[in-house]
Write a structure and sequence with these properties.
The complex is a heterodimer. By secondary structure, chain A is an alpha+beta fold. Chain A has 4 helices and 3 strands. Chain A has a 3-stranded antiparallel beta sheet. Chain B is elongated, with a radius of gyration of 38 Å. In chain B, a hairpin with a 5-residue loop joins strand 1 and strand 2. Classes of the chains: A alpha+beta, B alpha+beta.
């Protein structure tokens, strides 16, 4: 098994999901997983199954909500969308993430 | 806020579990289908597409598990399932589960009970307020010859002197007397504590009901009042609050009950248990004739005696102001008592809690409790070892299952948890069962006596919160130990190895260590039992050749019943006649106990003063005494009817005393000067006319020094000892004797009548305690050990059967194969025995003080116990060894 791809940092998956739902709106689990893979250009190693526990977690915290619907190729799937408090959370986390990543870049001597 | 919301959702989810599960499943399923569709569009075959999509999803079981943990309370939910599974696994092998739980329970139970006992004796012996400020005021004097004499007795005019120094905030006084108590029925012997009016105040002890004494109660001639002890109140009045104001009779005097002492308070000494408390200054009114009737505080300075002072029974208890140390207080007291300091006499302050343990046994008590603690610790260890063993076996048996779980994606932490849950359940069962066991332990030890005559039932032990806490912490500790053993023992399964190999035993080393440990602990406990048992046997064989099992003795004291000396003499004459005519007795004698001389005293032998290495007992006898006991006069003559009050005074000595008197030559004709005489008359000279063999009645005096003298030549008191030789049944003889005494005077209650063997046995109370406790624990340990050895041998036989089969195929005989198993058992047991010898050697000093006539590292006992363990171990291993001998080689090799 090639493990060259980067493992996900703890907590980043939540942020990715929130961002994906924030930018794409209504989406099912598979769509979210595919979108993250596309954006990461295969740089990330992601077991697609792992997004489901994250989705459960986010929903329980009230940052996303879900309903069962029918997908584009006519399959039953659960669709998720971001809530208002989820958007606030997204902004907060994005800001925090940018600060950390800028700090890390400066520290490692590779300005953006 | 988000947390709260999540928690609420999780709680709700618990109630719609199935729907949530289905929802989870459907989502994952939908995802896989979509992935599959995508792969199909990319041109993969349908089977490849399915495989690829499953690969892309990752570990499905793990994902679902994680989702579940998010949905519900992950840990709690999994725990519930682990508990369910563990219960199912444990109930599959009920016998082994039960044994482990019992082993653990007896360990924890004994620990909890011991904790109650130790804390009652050592940690908080007296339920008084701020005990650290309370001190018994005594004296310490250095004699001209350099010997040190300490005493807590009240002497001279100590009370007013100490009170005047102002060193103590409060100073109380009190002491105990044996009395007869009745509430209008038969008088029963009891104990009365005479306490100064400020006694309870000084101790900061408040009555449970009623009131304490006032200064007005505490004076000569005051209307007599009493406080009852809580246990007497419960026993006699059924804890009736209306007992206040009622009357009891103390020594025949009516006394009004004014209060009840609080539960658990029983005077200041662990070896006493007063039934009633009376004001100190009423002692003369109550004890008429028995105790000094004067006001002891006003006694003239008595320069003669120390302990012979008529107030020597009184103890002074002072409460020091906070912040003052005992040393500072003593220095201040001494500074104000300079004339005594010059004579080598100083004050001695003993903390009340220390003073509660009888002086002579303070060290012994520590040793005893250490020994008990050690024993219980060993038992707890055995319990933990047994449970550890069980868990190891289980984990081992589940090796394939665990490997399969890992292969299917279970996390290792999850597996560790399942093992821990099993251990936790065993520990929980052990703790629950420990409580009744602890109660039983407390109940069972009630009848025993601790060193110094501290009776366990007087301690009114109960399982307090602290004891239960101790049990619980014992359980937690043992669970921790168990999980540690199980996890380090290698539950961490080597996946590939486990799934491919067929052999069973993966962790023989850990198990071997457990077996060795068990053997060692069992050896130590059983050897201790053996040593105690042999001590008792040694004590009972102190009188070889004499029928001490059939000789019954019992004291009868008539002074308390108001008899004069003459009346008492008449009573005993009549009693003797009645008993002599009774066919239950082969022989009857009446003895006058006459005190004796301690090691600090001196006696003039042929005019030369000399001391003796142990107590010299004086006994007044009649001419039937030696024939009743069965002692032949080995030199000289017996006493006879001619040794009357006016005849020359004579004595017969015990063999040991005779030896000391004239260094091995015949002591006949030696003249002893009477120690007690009234100065105007010349002292009497007593001539030794006979020698009799030793008869041991006190185990601490195996070489008794006794001077027997004819009763008519002594000043008789109102007390006698009845000595009877039973014709057949001693029980019936005791009954006959009791009814003969009752027939003469219904009120008189003699001391218990016991055979000499029973009296010797009673003196071995600690050793009997040792035999019962250590023996019980030792048997549990032995059982568990044998069980462990069997499991070990059986799993070796099955685990190594491929190896054994190959050896058989190469020509090894069945006998060879069987002996492999036996050899392994022998090696392990041998190692355990060696370790046990080491432990026994380390513990030898702890047990030494409790052994009698035997050394702690007794080879015979150790070898005997070792042989027993080895024999049992080998016989239990025979079955697995036979299985190895009858191995079906062809079938085993094909497996």
């Amino acid at each position: 098994m090639s493990r060259k791809k980067t493992d996900l940092l703890q907590g980043t998956l939540d942020l990715m999901i929130l961002q994906t739902l924030g930018s794409m709106g209504h989406q099912h689990g598979w769509g979210i997983a595919r979108r993250i893979e596309q954006v990461s250009e295969d740089a990330l190693f992601l077991n697609q199954g792992t997004i489901y526990p994250a989705l459960v977690r986010l929903e329980q915290q009230g940052w996303i909500r879900s309903e069962w619907g029918v997908s584009e190729n006519n399959r039953r799937a659960k669709f998720f969308e971001i809530t208002r408090s989820g958007r606030r959370q997204l902004e907060k986390r994005t800001e925090k993430w940018l600060t950390i990543s800028a700090t890390m870049s400066r520290l490692l001597g590779r300005p953006e | 806020m988000h947390r709260l919301r999540a928690t609420v959702v999780r709680v709700l989810n618990l109630f719609r579990r199935n729907r949530v599960e289905e929802d989870l499943h459907a989502q994952v399923e939908a995802h896989v289908r979509m992935l599959e569709g995508e792969f199909l569009r990319q041109g993969l075959s349908s089977s490849d597409a399915l495989r690829a999509s499953k690969r892309a999803m990752g570990n499905g079981a793990l994902t679902r598990e994680q989702m579940r943990e998010e949905r519900f309370f992950g840990g709690l939910d999994a725990l519930a399932r682990d508990v369910q599974l563990a219960l199912r696994r444990l109930s599959k092998r009920p016998a082994i589960t039960l044994v482990s739980v019992l082993a653990l329970a007896s360990g924890i139970g004994a620990a909890a009970a011991t904790w109650s006992l130790l804390s009652a004796v050592l940690l908080r012996p007296l339920p008084v307020g701020d005990a650290e400020q309370l001190f018994v005021v005594g004296t310490r004097s250095v004699r001209p010859d350099g010997t040190v004499h300490v005493s807590d007795a009240h002497i001279y005019t100590m009370y007013p002197r100490v009170r005047e120094t102002g060193v103590f905030d409060a100073l109380a006084a009190g002491g105990i007397w044996d009395v007869l108590l009745d509430v209008g029925d038969r008088p029963v012997p009891g104990a009365a504590y005479f306490a100064s009016h400020d006694f309870f105040d000084t101790l900061r002890v408040r009555p449970a009901i009623g009131r304490e004494f006032t200064p007005d109660d505490d004076r000569e001639g005051a209307p007599p009042v009493a406080m009852l002890s809580h246990s007497y109140w419960r026993r006699i009045f059924g804890a009736d609050p209306n007992a206040i104001g009622r009357e009891i009779r103390v020594g025949g005097n009516p006394v009004t009950i004014v209060g009840v002492a609080p539960r658990g308070f029983r005077g200041l000494s662990l070896s006493d248990a007063p039934d009633v408390y009376l004001p100190l200054h009423t002692v003369g009114d109550i004890m008429r004739g028995t105790a000094p009737s004067t006001n002891f505080f006003a006694l003239p300075l008595n320069t003669e005696g120390t302990v012979s002072s008529p107030t020597a029974w009184i103890r002074l208890i002072g409460r020091m102001p906070p912040g003052l140390t005992a040393d500072q207080a003593r220095n201040r007291l001494d500074a104000l008592w300079s004339e005594a300091v010059e004579n080598g006499q100083t004050y001695r302050l003993t903390n009340l809690n220390t003073a509660a343990i009888p002086e002579g046994v303070r060290d012994g008590m520590g040793q005893f409790t250490r020994l008990l603690g050690l024993t219980v610790g060993l038992l707890l260890l055995i319990g933990c070892l047994a449970v550890g063993m069980l868990l190891l076996m289980r984990t081992e048996a589940r090796r394939d299952e665990l490997a399969m779980c890992l292969a299917l994606g279970a996390s290792r932490g999850r597996l560790a948890r399942s093992v821990a849950v099993e251990g936790g359940l065993l520990a929980l069962g052990g703790t629950l069962l420990a409580l009744p066991i602890a109660q039983w332990f407390l109940w069972g030890t009630r009848a025993f006596e601790l060193p110094g005559g501290v009776r366990v039932d007087w301690l009114e032990l109960s399982l307090g919160i602290d004891a239960v806490a101790a049990a619980a912490s014992g359980a937690v500790t043992s669970t921790f130990l168990i999980v540690l053993i199980a996890v380090s023992g290698g539950w961490s399964v080597d996946l590939a190895h486990a799934l491919t190999s067929h052999t069973g035993a993966t962790m023989p080393r850990t198990r071997a260590i457990l077996v060795v440990g068990q053997v060692a602990v069992a050896l130590v406990l059983l050897a201790g039992t053996g040593l105690f048992a042999r001590s008792i046997i040694a004590a009972l064989s102190l009188n070889p050749g004499y029928d001490t099992g059939r000789i019954v003795t019992g004291s009868v004291g008539l002074a308390a019943y108001g008899y004069s000396r003459e009346e008492a003499a008449v009573f005993f004459d009549e009693l003797h006649q009645r008993l002599s005519g009774n066919p239950a007795f082969a022989s009857v004698s009446v003895v006058l106990p006459y005190g004796g001389m301690t090691t600090s005293g001196e006696m003039r032998i042929d005019g030369v003063p000399r001391g003796f290495p142990s107590f010299v007992r004086y006994t007044g006898i009649d001419e039937r005494y030696f024939s009743t006991i069965g002692l032949p006069v080995i030199e000289g003559r017996d006493v006879s009817e001619y040794d009357g009050p006016d005849a020359p005074r004579v004595a017969i000595v015990s063999e040991s005393l005779g030896r000391l008197l004239r260094n091995g030559n015949s002591p006949l004709g030696i003249r002893i000067t009477e120690g007690v005489w009234r100065p105007p008359d010349p002292p009497d000279i007593i001539e030794v006319v006979g020698v009799v063999p030793d008869i041991v009645t006190n185990v601490t005096l195996p070489e008794p020094l006794v001077i027997y003298m004819p009763i008519p030549q002594l000043e008789a008191t109102q007390s006698r000892e009845i000595v009877l030789r039973a014709r057949a049944d001693t029980g019936a003889a005791v009954g006959e004797a009791m009814s003969a005494i009752r027939a003469l005077d219904d009120a008189v209650t003699p001391q218990p009548m016991l055979t000499i063997d029973q009296r010797l046995g009673d003196q071995m109370s600690q050793q009997r305690f040792g035999v019962v406790v250590m023996g019980g624990l030792g048997m549990i340990a032995l059982l568990l050990t044998i069980l462990g050895i069997y499991v070990m041998a059986a799993s070796t036989a099955s685990g190594r059967r491929r190896e054994l089969a190959i050896r058989a195929a190469l020509g090894a005989t069945g006998w060879r194969l069987g002996s492999t198993i036996l050899m392994e058992t022998t090696q392990l047991v041998g190692l355990g025995i060696l370790l046990g010898f080491g432990l026994a050697w380390l513990g030898a000093n702890t047990i030494r003080a409790f052994l009698y006539g035997i050394e702690p590292f007794d080879p015979l006992t150790l070898v005997g116990v070792s042989a027993l363990i080895l024999l049992l171990a080998i016989s239990i291993s025979l079955k697995p060894a036979l299985a190895a001998m009858r191995l079906d080689v062809a079938r085993t090799l094909r497996e």
